[in-house]
């Protein structure tokens, strides 16, 4: 089961962490701006560390699959 979901009833279908209203894009933005995973998790306590890591692994797999 995917950690990241899209539901038109949640933030207009923006990809979010399952069971939350936290957009996956927020995690990417934090990392892009040099913030740490811990800083992200402190700001969004409804996302667990394991979920954030699994979401990044999912995104990586999608990117690499698209390169093949």
Describe the structure in your own words.
With 68 residues, this protein is mainly alpha-helical. 51% of the residues lie in helices and 6% in strands. The protein has a two-stranded antiparallel sheet.
Give a quick set of tags describing it.
Arc Repressor Mutant, subunit A, 51% helix, 68 residues, single chain
Give the topology.
Blueprint: E1 4-5, E2 16-17, H1 24-32, H2 37-43, H3 49-67
Antiparallel strand pairs: 1-2
Gist?
With 68 residues, the protein is mainly alpha-helical. It has three helices and two strands.
Domain count, please report it. 1
Strand order, sheet with most strands: 1-2
Q: What structural category do the secondary elements indicate?
A: mainly alpha
Low-confidence stretches: none
Question: What is the CATH topology assignment?
Answer: Arc Repressor Mutant, subunit A
N- to C-terminal separation? 23 Å
Q: Sketch the topology as an H/E string, one letter per element.
A: EEHHH
SS strand fraction: 5-15%
The number of helices is 3
Task: Name the helicity range.
Answer: 40-55%
**CATH hierarchy class name:** Mainly Alpha
Major sheet: 2 strands, antiparallel
How many E-type strands?
2
Radius of gyration: 12 Å
